[in-house]
Amino acid sequence: MSAPSTHPPSAPLGGLLALLPVGKKRRLIGGMALVAAGACYYQHAKAQARARRRRQADGARAGSKGGSPGKRRGGGGGSKALKELLPLLLRVAGRKVLVIALLAVARTALSNRLARLQGFLFRAAFLRRVPLFARNLSENLVLCGVAAALEATSRSWVSYMELGWRRFLTARLHGAYFADMTYYKLSYVDRRIDSPEQRICEDVPKLASGLADLTRELVAATVDAAFYAWQLKRYSGTHRYTAAILAYVFGVGSFMAVASPNFGGLFKKQQALEGVHRQLQTRLRANAESVAFYRGIAREGELLRSSFRDVIQHQARVLGKQWHFGMVQDFLLKYLGATVAVYLIIGPFFKGHMRPENTVQGRAQMLSNMRYHTSVIISLFGAMGTLGSSSRKLMKLGAYAERIREMERVMKEIKAGGATGSMGAAEGQVLSSEDAIVFEEAVVVTPGNATLVRDLSLRVPAGTNLLVTGPNGAGKSSLFRVLGGLWPLTRGRIYKPGGGSDDAEGGLSHDIFYVPQRPYVTQGSLQEQLIYPLPATAERRIPDDQLRQLLRTVDLEHLLDRDGGAEGAVNWGEVLSLGEQQRLGMARLFYHRPKFAILDECTSGVTVDMEERFCELVKDMGCTCVTISHRPALMAFHDLVLSLDGEGGWSLHPGHRSLEAKQEAAAHAGAKGGVDTREGPGMPTPSQPDSCSGKARGSDAEAVLQGMTAGKRRRQRGRGKQGRDAQEEAEEELGDGNEGFSELVIARAPPASAADRRLQAWAPRMGLKPAKLSSIARWKSVLAILSGDRQWLVRVSSVAGVVVLRTLLQDRIANLNGRSVDLVLRQDLPGFVRLIGVSVLQSVASAVLAPSLRHVADMLALNWRARLTRSAFAKYLVGNTFYTTSQLAGMQDIDQRLTRDIERLCDELAALIPTMVKPVVDIAWFSWQLWRLTGRRGMLILYLYTALGWGSLRAVTPDFGGLLKKELALEGNFRNAHGRLRTHAESVAFFGGGTREGSQITAAFAQLTAHLRALVGHRWAYGTADDFFAKQLPHNVTWLLTLLYALDQTGDFGDTAVQGALVHRLRYLASVVTQNFSAFGELLALPKRFAEISGGITRVSEALEVIDKSARLDATTTAAAAHRANEGGKATESIQLREVDVVTPVGKLLARKLDLEVQPGPGRSLLVTGPNGSGKTSVFRMLAGLWPLPDGLVHCPGSAAADLAAMAALGERPAVFYVPQKPYTTPGTLRDQVLYPLAMAQIMGPRYKAGSGRDDLDAELLELMGVVRLRYLLEREGGWDARKEWGEVLSLGEQQRLGMARLFFHRPLFGVLDECTNATSVDIEEQLYQHAASLGITLITITQRTALVKFHNRELRMVGEGEGDWELREIHASRLAGTQEGKSVGAPRVHFKDTT
Hints:
Blueprint: H1 14-19, H2 22-65, H3 76-92, H4 94-127, H5 130-177, H6 182-190, H7 196-236, H8 240-259, H9 263-286, H10 288-294, H11 297-351, H12 360-388, H13 391-416, E1 429-432, E2 436-445, E3 451-461, E4 466-469, H14 476-483, E5 491-496, E6 512-515, E7 523-524, H15 526-531, H16 544-553, E8 570-571, H17 572-575, H18 578-592, E9 596-600, H19 608-620, E10 624-628, E11 640-644, E12 650-654, H20 656-671, H21 698-721, E13 731-733, E14 741-748, H22 755-760, H23 764-767, H24 775-786, H25 791-826, H26 829-834, H27 836-876, H28 881-888, H29 894-956, H30 960-983, H31 985-991, H32 994-1048, H33 1056-1127, E15 1135-1143, E16 1149-1158, E17 1166-1169, H34 1176-1183, E18 1193-1195, H35 1203-1210, E19 1216-1219, E20 1228-1229, H36 1230-1235, H37 1240-1247, H38 1253-1267, H39 1272-1277, E21 1283-1284, H40 1286-1289, H41 1292-1306, E22 1310-1314, H42 1322-1334, E23 1338-1342, E24 1354-1359, E25 1365-1373
Parallel strand pairs: 1-5, 4-10, 4-11, 6-9, 9-10, 17-23, 17-24, 19-22, 22-23
Antiparallel strand pairs: 2-3, 2-5, 7-8, 11-12, 13-14, 14-25, 15-16, 15-18, 20-21, 24-25
C-alpha cells in the first residue's frame, strides 16, 4: 500500500480564488457551478430525448418477447431490493466486515505514517542530509513491506466475503428452488420468472462480487474520511476544510444521482437479453439432433443472430450513456473538485499560518508540511468522493438484486400456495390414503386456465389396474400432474398414499412410482440410475448378481460389459436410445417395487412382446398400474378404462381384464348350475353419465376408445392363428392386428468378416477432440480472428492515441505541479495566476480523456466479442456443424464457451490493451525524461530494479492459466447442471427427485467454491509480492534517485530562486520516476494477466478448433456423398444405400454392408424395425449426413442443406423431409410451428398470390390442423399469431401431430418418420398415414408398432442388438388370406371422419 498521492489531479486554479475579494470569489464559484450544472443538464436532457425516442420500440419489443410482471421501468425497485438483501448479507458477513474495517483502520494509520515519512524524506533530500534520509528511508522500506501484506490480506478477506455471500445467496435460492417442486412450477406453471438458472448462476456472483468490492471501498472511505477529518482539524484548528469538501462532494453527488440515466433499468435489461441469448444457445445444443434432421439451422441461426444483435446493440447504448455521463461525472467530481482541493492545499501556504519562514530550514519545513497536508486533503477528498459517487454502482447492483428478489418473491408465493401465474387460487385438498388412489369431484385446470377434467370421481383400489386414454391434449398426463402435486388442485379432493401435509418431498411419494415416456437418466453409474431418486449410498448398493438379473429382465445386461461396468460414470442420455432408456426406466420400477405405478406411455419405444412382458412382470410384482397409453394390447392388463375428452368430460368403462374375469366367473358359475350377474364392487357400467359424446372433441375420445377396443378383437383373432402352420417355410405370416399379410426375406447382411474389426477401429469422434497445443498456439489462433478485421488496427490505434495524449497530459501536470510548488516557495502570486489558464484546459482535457479511454476499451471488447461470436457462428450455424460439435465431438458445454467464456475473454483482452500500450508509451516518454535529468546512472538503477522485480515475481507466480481454465470449466458444469434440471423438470418432479438433483447441483457448486477459495490463497501470496515489488518498493527507489539528484546539484542554496528551481526539478523527477516504476509495475504484472487470460484463451480456442474440425468433417461428408453419388451414374430420385457399413462415431458396427433402394411412388414405403439400440435411427443419421460414412454409397435426392428453401423458392416439392423422434418446437407463433423450418417470407412469394396470400396460407394451415385434429388449438391458445413456449404448452402427442402437419404442409417426395407418432392414438395414427399416402408421400418409418405394417410393403429389420445383421423383407397380401383379396397394401381401406 502506497502513501496517498501528493499530486493534485489538476493545476492550482484555486490560487486565483485566494487572491480575489470575497464578493468576486463567490460570483466566480457560482459561475463555475452554473457552468457545471448546465453541462450536466444538457447531457441529461440529451439522454432523456434519446430515451423517449426508443421507448416505444423498446416497449413493443419487450411486449413481444414477454417478461416478468415484476419488472419495473425505474430504478426504485432495484434500490428497494438491495435494501432488503443488505441486512441479511451483513448479518452473514458481520465478522468479515469487522475484520475488513480493522484492516482499513490499520491501513489508514499506516498510510498516515507513510505520508509523514514522504514529507520527511522530501525535506531530507532538499537539505541533502544523508544520515537523516537513510533513517527515514529504512523505516519507509519496512512499512512498505507491511503495507503490501496488509493490502493483500484486505483483498483476500474481501474475496472470502464475496465467496461467502455467493454461497449464502445461492444456498438461499437453492433452498426454495429445490423444495416443493418449485424448480418445475417456476418455469412450467407460474412462468413469471424468465431464466431462473441465469439469475442463480450469473446474477448472484455479479451481485456478490460488486457488493463486496463496494463494501471494501465504502468501509475504507469511511475510515479515511473520519481519520483525515480529525487530522485536518488537529493541525489546522478548524473544520472549515472538511465542511467545504463535504458540501461540494455530496452536493455534486446528489445532483449526479438525480441527473443520472436509469442505469439500474439498463443493466437489468442487459442481463435479461443475455439470458435470452444464452437460453437459445442451450436450446440448440439440447435439441441438436432434431434441428439437424429438420435442417432447421438456418431458422435457429437467425434467432441466435437476432438475439445476439439485441445484446450487442443494447450494450453499445449502455456504454454510450456511461461514456457521456462519465465525462460529466469525472469533471465535476474529479477535476472541478480538484480545483477546490488545490485551493484548500495551496491557500494556507500563501497567506495562512502555514506560510513558510524566509529561511532554508523554514522552507524545508514548509515542503514537509505541504507534502503531508496534500496527502491529507487528497485522501479526505478521495474518501468523500467515494462515499458521494457510489450511486451508479448501487444502481447496477440494484438491478441484480431486483432480479434475485423477484425470483425469491415468486418462489415464496408458490410455496404459500397462492395464485400461480394465470391460475386462480387452488381450493382442492390432497389427503392421505393407505391402499387406494381416489378422486372426489376433482377439477383439473392448466396453467393457461383451460379446464381439462371437471368433477372427476373415481376410486382406484390396490389391485385394480386403470388405463387412461383419450385424444392428445385431453389431460391424461395433466391428471397425474395434479396427483403428483406439480399442478395445484383447483377444486375437489384427492386421496393417495403418502399424501397430505407429511408429503414433504413432493412428487408421487415412495408408494407411487412414476415412469415417464421420455425417461430421465442422470449422469452417473448404472447403480445410480436404478436407485434414483434415492441417494446412492453404500447401504443401498445393489449386489452384482441382483443387478445383473435386474438388467437381464429388461434385456440390458450388456450394459455391464461397458468400460467401467456398473460403477462407471456415463452420460446415459447420450449413450442409450429412447427404447433402451425406457427399458432402464422399467428396471428402475422393478427395483423400487412400489404399491402403485404411473406408467405414462413409458413403453412406446419398445416392441409389443417386450411391452407385454413388462406388464406381466408388474402384475407378478403385485403393483397396481395406472397407465396412460394408446396401445390396444395393454387393454388386456387393465380392469378400468378412463376416457377423457379434453373439454372437462370423462367416462368410465370396464377393461378387458375385468371382462375376462367376469366371463371366467360366469363360466365357472354356469358349470355349477347358475350364473351370478351381479357387478363387482366399484365396477362401472360401460358409460357414465358424464359421457363425452356430443362435444367438439367427444368424437375424438370415442374414436380412441373404439381403436383400443378393436385392438383387443384384432389381438384375439391374431392369437387364433398362431397355431397355424405356414404354407411356405420362407414366408412368415403376420398376426397381432396384421392378419392377411405376410413377409418374405429378400436380402440379408453378408457374413461377418475380418474387415469388421477394421471398421470398429474407425472412430471419427476421436479426430474431433481438441489438439494438445501450446499456449502460444492458442493465443495465435484467437488473435488471428481478432486481427482479421481491418478495423481492429483503427480501434487499437485509437486506444494507443488516447494513451499517448494521456501520457503527455500527465507529464504536463507533473511539470505544473513542480512549478506550482516553486511559485509557492518563492511566494510568486503573479506567476501562479499565469498558470491558471493552462490548468483549466488540462482539467477539461483530463475529464474527456479518462472516460474516453475506458469507453474505447469497452467498445473494443464489445467489437471483439461480436467478431469472435460471429466468426464461430459462421461455421457453427451452417450445415450440421452445430450437431457434430456437441453430439459427435462431445463438447457439451459449447453454449457456455460461446457465451460467457467469449464475453469474459474479450473483456479481459480489451482491458489488457491499455495495460500493454500505456506502460510502453510511459516508459518511452518518461525514460527519456529520466535520462535528461539523471543520465546513465538513473537509467541503470531503473532497469536493474525492473529485472530484479520481474525475476522475483516470476518465481512466485502460480499457474494462473490452469487455475482459471479449471474455474471456467467448473462454472460451466454448475450452469449445465441447472440447465439439465430445467429441461427435465417434470420427470424429476414426478419422481420427487428435487432433493437428489439439488444435492448433485450443490455438490457441483461446492467444487466450484472450493476451487475459488483455494484460488484466494494463491492470489494472496502473489498479491503480496506483486504489491511490494511493483508498487511499494519503487517508492523507495524513487526517493533514492531524488537524493542522488539533489546531491549532484551545485549553486547557492541560500538563494530562493535556486531553491525553487531545485524543488521544481525534484518534484518533477519524483513524478517521472514514479511514472516509470508504475509503468514497469504494470509490465511486471503482465505475466500474471497473460496467465489468467490464457485459461479463457484455451477454452475459446478449443471451441473454435472443434467447430472448425466439425465444419470440415461436415463438408467432407457432404462432398464425399456427392462424389459417390456422381460415381454411381445417372442421378435418380430414389434413396439408395449401397454396401453401407453403419458405424457409430465411436466405432461400434451396427449394420454390415447395408444395401437397399427406396423408389418414390405409391406402395413403395419402407418400414424399419428392430430392437432398441440396433441402429434404426443411425441409418438415417447417415442418410441425412449427420454421421460420416466409412464406406459404401448413400444417395439422397436433394440432400443439400438448402434444399427445402430452394424448392420452396421454386414452388416445387422438396425431396426428403425428416420428422425426428424427439419433437421440436421453435420459438415463435403457432403458424411458425407448422411452417418450420421455413419462415413465412420464404413461403409466401412462390406459393401464394400477392395481397391475399396470408389468408390463403392460414386457410391451408387450418385445413391441415383439421387433418391432424389440432384445430381446437387455435381457440385454446389464441390464434395463429399467439407466441408461447410451445414445448411446454403442448402435450407430447400434440407436438407429434404438429410435426406431421409440417410434413403434410411441405409435401416432400419422401417422409422419414422416426417413431414420431408413438404418443398418438391408433385411430389418429392410421389417419395420418392414410393422409400421407393420399399426398403421394413415400414413407420410411421407424417404429415398434406392428399396426403400421399394412402401410408399407417392405421392411428393413435390424437383427440383434448392434451385431451388424439385418434383413430386408417384402410385405404382401398373404397367400393364406383368400378372403382379403383386393386389399391394397399401399393404401388400406381404413376410413375416418374428421369432426374437428
